[in-house]
Amino acid sequence: METFYNMKNILAVLTAIICLLTFNSFGQSKFQNDYFRDGMYHFDGLEKISEAELFTTFKSEFGLSNDYSLKRSNDVVEESGLFNSKYELYYKGIPVEGSMYNVRGEKGIVQSVNGFALQGLNINVTGLISEEDAINAAKDHIGANTYIWENDGMADKYPVPELIITKKRGEDYAHTVTNYALCYKIYRITHSIRF
């Protein structure tokens, strides 16, 4: 009798696990199947998704791991409650150039989402050259004799390096992870230099 009882418990646990796995896969495919059409997400069903939970609770539905985050960079809200927000993609805290989503809705409820997010990045974001070395490399690349910040009273024009993940330039490079790299973008020098 005791063996039968233990087998019954094991079967109950296995059934619960199978149900959970089925529910999770159904939830992910349901998100894609029910909401994605014509190149964008349309949240026009009975289920209401708030803007606050879109890229937190449902982040994995967009194919984004815990290494990714989305930060609102622009938000326009009309008196009627209609809103249009732009979210930029970050990987391990570093912006992924060209990856962003536009979110539209009303009174905090999302109605549609479109845009592009580079999925599947696996980049080591430490150990790159220093900011000063990046500035010196940019100066060598440009090759000017004198730079504006070297003139009296123009020290505020000193270059500002920013770590970014960006795509190789040119039409031949598709939006795939192999065509993206970590680099410094040097503001006030007019070029991005890869290292």
Describe the structure.
The longest helix is centred in the first third of the chain and has 34 residues. The protein has 195 residues and is α+β, with helices and mostly antiparallel strands. Helices cover 26% and strands 33% of the residues. It starts with a helix and ends with a strand. β8 and β9 form a beta hairpin. The protein has 3 domains: 37 residues; 83 residues, Nuclear Transport Factor 2, Chain: A (Roll); 64 residues, no CATH class.
Note the topology:
Blueprint: H1 2-35, E1 36-37, E2 40-42, H2 51-54, E3 68-77, E4 82-91, E5 94-106, E6 109-116, H3 131-142, E7 160-167, E8 180-187, E9 192-194
Antiparallel strand pairs: 1-2, 2-6, 3-4, 4-5, 5-6, 7-8, 8-9
Give the gist of this structure.
This protein has helices spanning 2-35, 51-54, 131-142, and strands at residues 36-37, 40-42, 68-77, 82-91, 94-106, 109-116, 160-167, 180-187, 192-194. By secondary structure, the chain is α+β, with helices and mostly antiparallel strands. β3 (68-77) and β4 (82-91) form a beta hairpin.
Overview features:
3-stranded antiparallel sheet, elongated, Nuclear Transport Factor 2, Chain: A, single chain, 9 strands, alpha+beta, 6-stranded antiparallel sheet, disordered N terminus, 195 residues
User: Order of strands across the widest beta sheet?
Assistant: 1-2-6-5-4-3
Determine and state the CATH class of the largest domain.
Answer: Alpha Beta
Report the count of strand segments: 9
Oligomer: single chain
